[in-house]
């Protein structure tokens, strides 16, 4: 058996708890150092999870035992931090989105290719048992030929829980750029690459107010559309309609329904790793009111081990050792960003926008993938 792979983390904010909890429990990796602009924050997280070293960014980049660095900074600096990681000769796993513009994101991927280094991009929720079981069900023909999907993400907005939510309403954020990666990634796993998008959007208010934490009461600007309705056409013929809104008192999110010729598959929230999966079958005969509409709903058994954030990095680590491609590639993450930016452009222009990038076949996680096994 080889040794676990050395991992570093840059960015010790809100989401770092989930990564640290999981990565410190996966035997195939060892978290060796955490860095942040706010060094005390990095030290606090290191102490909490028993990580040996913590401090500034250079401490992580200069550590010769670290092969791969997790970029948990805010979207506006994702590319800058990922490029610094690559320049230090290390592979990158970055939180989503890959970046906030096409040119710098592509440049970063090209640097990685030139250096023979890998880039992996969140979300890895779609590598969890939920979406992966759904993919297998569709491949088996359980819903016949997939036709279209409907997705919904609507609620009042992240300032209700996030102590520093301004970045979620800045360029690179908003319900589209912040939450779109989950829904678009799930749809691309099912339907393949996106061909074109059309969308309308609105910005309900120019500013919002922090609700929790030390900054509560502080106003911050809204730079992006806070509600976006999207039509998506996939290269291979499927289509989807999607709502992204942080203006809705009604909380309805995590809805992904995929309709095929023989059934409608309801899959778990793509911002989670799993949950109930069902197929609704067509009615055998018309139901006349007041008789209740009762449809046949079949449960699909979810296969795979539920873990959490860090799953994609683990697939990447194991794939590097095995010399095979990992699933959540930089090119996949770029195609998702390209799609989201094309949606923004359609909101501006009112026209259908062709998505310029594409990807080859999307990989899958096998049902017997066990994050808690020592495999290296
Ligand atoms: N919070 C969530 O629920 C959540 C969920 C999934 C994904 N994400 C993603 O994770 C990332 C981080 O989100 P968060 O909520 O933890 O944000 P956060 O603001 O709580 O934390 C970000 C951290 O990065 C540090 N940082 C910023 N710029 C830096 C730089 N140049 N070098 C080093 N450190 C730097 C900050 O000091 C901060 O500690 C984002 O990309 C977000 O999209 C967040």
List its traits.
single chain; 376 residues; alpha/beta; Rossmann fold; Dihydrodipicolinate Reductase, domain 2; 2 domains; 9-stranded mixed β-sheet; 6-stranded parallel β-sheet; 9 helices; 29% helix; binds nicotinamide-adenine-dinucleotide; NAD(P)-bd_dom_sf; Gfo/Idh/MocA-like_OxRdtase_N
Strand fraction equals 15-25%
Calculate Rg over CA atoms. Answer: 21 Å
Tell me the number of helical segments per DSSP (H or I, 4 or more residues long): 9
Low-confidence stretches: none
Q: What structural class do the secondary elements suggest?
A: alpha/beta
What's the total number of strands?
Answer: 17
Give the spatial strand order of the biggest sheet: 16-15-14-13-7-12-11-8-17
Largest sheet: 9 strands, mixed
One letter per element, helices H and strands E, the order comes to: EHEHEHEHEHEHEHEEEEEEEEEHHE
Kindly identify the CATH topology of the largest domain. Dihydrodipicolinate Reductase, domain 2
Shape: globular
- The residue fraction in helices comes out at 25-40%
Query: Between the first and last Cα atoms, what is the distance in angstroms?
Result: 6 Å
CATH class of the largest domain: Alpha Beta
Which CATH architecture of the largest domain? 2-Layer Sandwich
Q: Hetero groups bound?
A: nicotinamide-adenine-dinucleotide
Number of domains: 2
State the CATH superfamily name of the largest domain. Dihydrodipicolinate Reductase, domain 2
Compute the average pLDDT: 97
């Amino acid at each position: 058996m080889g040794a676990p792979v050395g991992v570093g983390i840059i960015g010790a904010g809100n989401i770092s708890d989930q990564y640290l909890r999981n990565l410190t429990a996966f035997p195939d990796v060892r978290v060796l150092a955490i860095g942040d602009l706010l060094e005390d924050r990095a030290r606090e997280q290191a102490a909490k999870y028993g990580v040996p070293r913590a401090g500034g960014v250079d401490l992580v980049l200069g550590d010769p035992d670290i092969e791969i660095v997790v970029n948990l900074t805010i979207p506006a600096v994702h590319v800058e931090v990922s490029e610094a990681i690559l320049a230090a000769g290390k592979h990158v796993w970055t939180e989503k989105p890959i970046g906030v513009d096409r040119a710098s994101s592509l440049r970063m991927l090209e640097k990685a290719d030139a250096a023979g280094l890998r880039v992996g991009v969140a979300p890895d929720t779609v590598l969890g048992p939920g979406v992966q079981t759904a993919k297998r069900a569709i491949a088996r023909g359980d819903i016949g030929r997939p036709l279209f999907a409907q997705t919904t993400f609507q609620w009042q907005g992240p300032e209700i829980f996030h102590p520093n939510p301004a970045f979620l309403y800045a360029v690179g954020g908003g319900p589209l750029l912040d939450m779109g990666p989950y829904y678009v990634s799930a749809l691309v796993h099912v339907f393949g690459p996106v061909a074109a998008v059309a969308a309308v959007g609105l910005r309900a208010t120019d500013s919002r107010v922090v609700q929790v934490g030390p900054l509560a009461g502080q106003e911050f600007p809204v730079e992006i559309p806070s509600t976006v309705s999207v039509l998506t056409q996939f290269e291979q013929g499927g289509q989807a309609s999607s709502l992204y809104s942080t203006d809705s008192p009604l909380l309805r999110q995590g809805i992904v329904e995929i309709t095929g010729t023989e059934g409608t598959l309801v899959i778990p929230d793509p911002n989670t790793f799993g949950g109930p999966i069902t197929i609704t079958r067509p009615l055998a005969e018309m139901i006349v009111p007041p008789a209740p509409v009762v449809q046949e709903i079949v449960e699909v058994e979810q296969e795979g081990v539920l873990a959490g954030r860090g799953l994609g990095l683990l697939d990447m680590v194991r794939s590097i050792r095995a010399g095979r491609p990992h699933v959540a590639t930089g090119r996949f993450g770029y195609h998702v960003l390209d799609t989201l930016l094309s949606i923004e452009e359609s909101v501006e222009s009112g026209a259908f926008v062709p998505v310029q990038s594409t990807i080859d076949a999307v990989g899958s996680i096998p049902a017997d993938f066990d994050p808690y096994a020592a495999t290296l």
